[in-house]
Amino acid sequence: MAPIYSRIIATGSALPERAVSNADLEKIVDTSDEWIRTRTGIRQRHIAADGETTGDLAFLAAQRALEAAGVKASELDLIVLGTTTPDIIFPSTACLVQQRLGANGCAAFDVNAACSGFMYALGIADKFIKSGQSKKVLVIGAETLTRMVDWNERETCVLFGDGAGAVVLEASGEPGIYATCMHADGGYKELLWNPVGVSVGFRDEPNHGVRIKMAGREVFKVAVKTLDSLVDETLEAVGMHESDIDWLIPHQANLRIIEATAKRLQMPMDRVIVTVDQHANTSSGSVPLALDYAVRSGKVQRGQNLLLEAFGGGFTWASALLRY
Ligand code: ACO
After folding, report:
1. Does one domain contain both 269 and 156?
2. Domain residues for 93?
3. How many domains does the structure of the chain reveal?
4. Residues 62 and 141 both lie in one domain
5. Probe target for ligand 1 pocket from 183, 194, 217, with the most ligand atoms within 8 Å of CB
6. Are residues 169 and 313 both part of a single domain?
7. Is the shortest distance between the CB of 281 and ligand 1 below 6 Å?
8. Tell me: the pLDDT tens digits for 34-56?
9. Does any ligand 1 atom lie closer than 6 A to the CB of residue 16?
10. Is 194 in the pocket of ligand 1 (CB under 6 A)?
11. pTM > 0.85: yes or no
């Protein structure tokens, strides 16, 4: 039997209207544009308006992807949404988006893998298509991470932004996603986490609110090392070499981490999609936002090989190598 591939037939994305520059943050915490730019590559981030949710951004990104694909919501047979900032505890944000799109009836669920959420969602959707279970799948990565940032803590508040991206996948005889890789190591949980929630309880006292906590330097070191072996593993899974990759579309957390991965792949930076300067770290939103930017700006062309990867809290890390 001929193999079934998942093909990305279209992309979409959405950002909150309000952009906040590094200079704006200088007024809130003891930081500087120079520090933020040189340490992270970030120049600005978009921040959701009061009342604007992860689901709102996901819905817009999904609508744009479906429109570009020429696919009706009623044709979808699965929606997988990566997020660590769902609108409400339940129903899942995937279900909320499904209802707004008018895709009622198909399977819909969220995946929480922190910043690797979209890559996990993409890998899962790919398996559904490869198994013959699904034909048309909407995969979304969406976050409002700034909702759980401590705006008094300069070490973290300058790093994050809000946004969403989506892709429509279709079963095809042509490649397609060649391989996806997914990993996690919960042993690192305390280096990057938000340790409150339903079962342990929400605590609102100082230092225990719903806030991201990160040991930045340690995360940085593990991220670089782990992403090096992840790209090696992904190339090996497909039997490709560094030179076969047309574009690296990495998680947008820190330009220095992106540059380290590009170096490992012997790729010049003009073959790497960088949006961290404009979006900051949008967690699950980051890779699909970067992909949509790459497609709509005309950088990524049909037939090119793309390597997508992400690393985040958990730790989790995941990748996909595909022909666009
Ligand atoms: N402005 C000015 N100074 C600052 C700021 C700031 N915003 N933040 C920290 N500093 C200071 C620190 O206090 C420290 O001062 P000291 O030397 O007097 O003690 C100094 O700057 C250097 O701090 P470092 O932590 O060593 O800075 P580093 O070069 O490691 O950069 C950063 C910090 C940007 C956080 C980096 O470590 C990083 O990007 N880490 C990885 C983040 C990441 O990839 N996260 C994964 C995904 S996120 C997710 O999954 C939700």
Report:
1. no
2. 5-174
3. 2
4. yes
5. 217
6. no
7. yes
8. 999 999 999 999 999 999 999 99
9. no
10. no
11. yes
